[in-house]
Amino acid sequence: MEQSFEVVIIGGGPAGLTAGLYVSRARLSAVLIEKAIFGGQITNTERIENYPGFPEGISGFDLGQLMYEQATKYGLETVAAEVTGVDLSDRDRKVVRTDQGDYMAGALIIAGGAQYNKLNVPGEEGLLGKGVSYCATCDGAFFRDQVVAVVGGGDSAVEEALVLTRFASKVIVIHRRDELRASKLHQERAFANPKMEFLWDSVVEAIVGPDRVQGLVVRNVKTNQKTDVAVSGVFVYVGLHPQTDYLKGGAIPLDEDGRILTGQGMETEIPGVFAAGDIRKNSPRQAIVAAGEGATAAISAERFLLERP
Amino acid sequence: MAEVLTVDDGSFEESILKADVPMLVDFWAPWCAPCKAVAPILGELASEYEGKLGFARINVDEQPANASKYGITAIPTLLVFKGGQPVGQVLGFRPKAQLKKAIDEIIG
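ok -> structure tokens follow
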């Protein structure tokens, strides 16, 4: 089954939904393909405090829902499907292949975002759902009065560690450097919280079970000394990778980390193909930036379609 | 049209463990965003699997006994019961096509 539109958008996070809002208000026929949850990564953030317009903050899930409502209000179509490949060889007819059929368009906006990294250590996979988690907001309440670890030192790690202090008796942040990368505001909150502890210069070598998480093997990267740390849960926030596996065949130039290279108008090297949000090289990975880039990509796509011979 | 049955710790044995057909139970909580995304998919699957597999959901925030009994520490967890025993599980959100594949592997 093939369906044709003027614009196809891959990804339903802030970048894709904003692009969808703009192209549908430009009265272009458009479909947005999302494989999981509208709102994307932000849906797992309990409270977003740096998206302008919400002085009290807003839940990431609610913000995603509002963006979805606003985008679809003007005629944007959406489909729940996973992209499996693209064919960009025909300038006027780009093809996006999904597990639910093919979608054709004159312009393509790739806003597929990023996915969290795993630690890739022994025990991680087998203990998933048995103490290993990537969503503190979802699973924190199962660790009431227990000791848990958070791996990572960025905004997500520190934010989620703070969420966990509401349930856990102690939250140990394990970070490979000797200082956090998180914003100063998050750092102030973390250092002021009596339930938070920090293991600096440290990496997790293994998660110990066997049936449920009992502890971690932690190695100090400066001394190489290994320590056993007893925890009943471990929450992993060690960065993200762009969701560009289906582009690795060479359809679009990517950087060494698989991110898409774009110009100022979010254009890629392929005429009529644009990228926005966390999937881009040098993306600052912020919801507000992704939304802005989605708008830019949409305006560029509209211009491309108008100026096309 | 089959629907997703809401169960609690009191009705769990009768509705799930003693059910005539295999039952898929969605352990969820209101604070969990992926749980909210799973719910409508399960609603569709309940009709598609009618007669083969029953669908139920239990709010672990209000009804924690069975979540604890089955060692659930991550949500959403979809646990499939057959003849009173858990026979398989699906952890976390999956798109509908992938979820169907996982369910088909469990119920055979």
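Chain A touches chain B through 30 residues (CB under 8 Å).
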